[in-house]
Write a structure and sequence with these properties.
Elements (H helix, E strand, L loop, with lengths): L4 H11 L4 E5 L21 H10 L3 E6 L4 H8 L7 E4 L4 E2 L13 H19 L6 E4 L3 E5 L5 H16 L5 E5 L2 E5 L5 H12 L3 E6 L5 H6 L5 E5 L8 E3 L2 H22 L5
Parallel strand pairs: 1-2, 1-9, 2-3, 9-10, 10-11
Antiparallel strand pairs: 3-4, 5-6, 6-8, 7-8
Length: 268
């Protein structure tokens, strides 16, 4: 694998910036997509790269995912780390002061989520085998990854029709998923909030799904945005798959280590 020359040049420039945040999606970027999401695992070295980056001066790292926060923490193994985890497309964060991770619902929202879930369970019972629901603190997600293309498309359309009958929902239609949340959240808003909280001047973000476009669009022309895989994108750069993303992350680690060692008085 060889990363595009323009991406390497941009990475070298990014590594020299004063205060940087390196963030990435999980599924489809750190971890290749699999039929059973519970078996997803990050590629070797990727989590170590994030931990290392987070330890460098004026450098922060984060994983931003549609997964709920607890599952994301378990799959990444970052529970003992200060690397930020942002789950449920921004609705949950390991940086939240309360144990709920920022997802405390009102009574009305809980009732709405319960009713929505029941309706989707009835829908799934009438669909072909392979469709299933994932339950999150503030959302319910219909997955079609285990289905053939045609029934998967029909199931997703049916889920969108259910969503259309409910007001106040935040709907995300991604790769083989339809997520319906009773909280308004997206990766772009969450990433910008984290950037501002740590005071980073530049952000690198890797994503593969349509939900990552919120993050790409929220960042600026001087940020390092990388689309992993096919599809239209607002990202500045593109790589073919997770293996390439892992290589780019490793490159950032190497470049940032060199840049911060040269200026870090503790390293002298």
């Amino acid at each position: 694998m060889t990363l595009p020359a323009d991406l390497r040049e941009a990475a070298a420039l990014f590594a020299e910036r004063d205060r940087v945040l390196v963030a990435t999606d999980f599924d489809g970027v750190l971890a290749p997509l699999v039929l059973d999401p519970s078996t997803s695992a990050p590629l070797p070295g990727t989590i170590e790269d994030l931990r290392a980056l987070h330890g460098y001066p004026q450098t922060w790292a984060a994983v931003v995912s549609g997964r709920d926060l607890a599952t994301l923490t378990e799959l990444t193994g970052l529970g003992d780390s200060s690397v930020t985890r942002i789950g449920s497309h921004g609705a949950e964060s390991s940086e939240a002061a309360d144990d709920a991770g920022g997802t405390e619902l009102t009574d009305a929202q809980r009732e709405h989520l319960t009713a929505l879930t029941a309706e989707l369970e009835d829908l799934c019972a009438g669909l072909s085998e392979g469709v299933y629901l994932e339950h999150k603190p503030s959302a319910v997600v219909l997955h079609t990854r285990r289905m053939a293309d045609e029934p998967a498309a029909e199931a997703e359309q049916a889920a969108l029709e259910v969503a259309a009958r409910h007001t106040g929902l935040h709907v995300l239609h991604g790769k083989q998923v339809v997520e319906m949340s009773v909280l308004q959240a997206d990766k772009g808003t969450a990433l910008v909030a984290l950037r501002d909280a740590v005071g980073a001047t530049h952000v690198a973000y890797f994503g593969d799904d349509v939900t990552d476009e919120h993050a790409f669009s929220a960042l600026g022309d001087d940020d390092l945005t990388v689309k992993v895989g096919d599809g239209e994108t607002a990202a500045r750069f593109r790589v073919a798959g997770p293996q390439d993303a892992a290589q780019a992350l490793s490159l950032l680690r190497t470049l940032r280590a060199a840049a911060t060692t040269a200026t870090d008085p503790l390293a002298m």
